[in-house]
Amino acid sequence: MNKKTIVKVLSVVLALVLGLTALWACGGDEPKTDEKEQLIMATNAAFPPYEYKEGDSFAGIDVEIAGLLADKLGMELVIKDVEFGSIVGGVETGKFDMGMAGMTVTPDRLESVNFTTSYATGIQVVIVKEDSSIVSLDDMLADGSMKYGVQQDTTGDIYASLTPDEGGYGQDNVIRYKTGAEAVQALATGKVDAVIIDNEPAKSFVAATEGLKILEAEWTVEDYAICVAKENTELLDKLNAALAELEAEGKIAEIIDRYIGD
To answer: Are 191 and 175 within 8 A, CB to CB?
Structure first.
């Protein structure tokens, strides 16, 4: 190839480059993407009706609300199913953007993470066998004669493990399990005398396990909120704004009513 030919080739290449640059500047052939920033949510999908699995998919109150929040923020929701006790630590270190798992705001958790405004109310109740000697909360003793099953790191665990002077039953009377389902199975097989757990999961577990009942009295009442890393104030503000919008639109009440009713 002689020098004149090389010059012609280079001229053609240069013209093509300039043409493509002009098109991209006008938006004509600029590559487009539908990819959204991810909103990574940590949960423990063994807590119906707030979060649970249907085959390979996630379902539940928290899952649906989180999906609407992600839409409001223009983000793609990604759910990670982890042990309940690892959620706060994972959010604190930035492994997850937020934790949403029927989680109650407590002073200990507030030392590690921030919480949004509350989006639901939870009630802790007590499950016993139908023929149990425990017929009221007053029958629950802290003298070592009774054992109480809880899901580890939940507020049931935290409050039940307090000393009797603090309103609990003491560490030695509390047996911790990885999931509420395991605690309920321990009750059914006689390994514990009662299980302390949130009311809505309690209903599901009792319906699926013969010979159990829920005591009528509420053990405690709590507010559920979403945890976010302390330094991630931008996300916290966006979530609070989105929650306020969903509340005003009646979307949160609609979801909760569909799963729980009145």
So the answer is: yes
Q: Which strand (E) or helix (H) includes residue 213?
A: strand 212-214
H/E stretch holding 161: none
Q: Is 31 exposed, middle or buried (0-12, 13-18, 19+ CB in 10 A)?
A: exposed
Confidence check: pLDDT of 206 > 90: yes
Contact (Cβ atoms closer than 8 angstroms) between residue 88 and residue 109: yes
Q: How far apart are CA 48 and CA 140, in angstroms?
A: 26
pTM higher than the cut 0.85: no
Beta strands in 10-132 (DSSP E): 38-43, 52-54, 57-59, 76-81, 98-99, 113-115, 120-129
Q: In this structure, is the dihedral angle defined by the CA atoms of residues 80, 84, 86 and 90, taken in order, positive or negative?
A: positive
Asked whether the bond before 48 is cis by omega within 30 degrees of 0, the reply is no
- Token pair of 138 as six digits: 């007053």
Is the separation of the CB atoms in 89 and 101 below 8 Å?
no
For residue 168, give the DSSP letter.
S
**Which domains are seen in the chain, by residue range?**
38-119+225-259 (3.40.190.10), 123-221 (3.40.190.10)
What are 217's two structure tokens?
């009295």
pLDDT of res. 31: 47
Is the pLDDT score of 56 beyond 60? yes
Question: 231: burial class by Cβ within 10 Å (0-12, 13-18, 19+)?
Answer: exposed
Q: What is the mean pLDDT of the chain?
A: 89
The total of other beta-carbon atoms located within 10 Å of residue 198's CB is 24
**pLDDT tens by residue, 27-52:** 444 444 567 899 999 999 999 999 99
- What's the pLDDT score for residue 94? 97
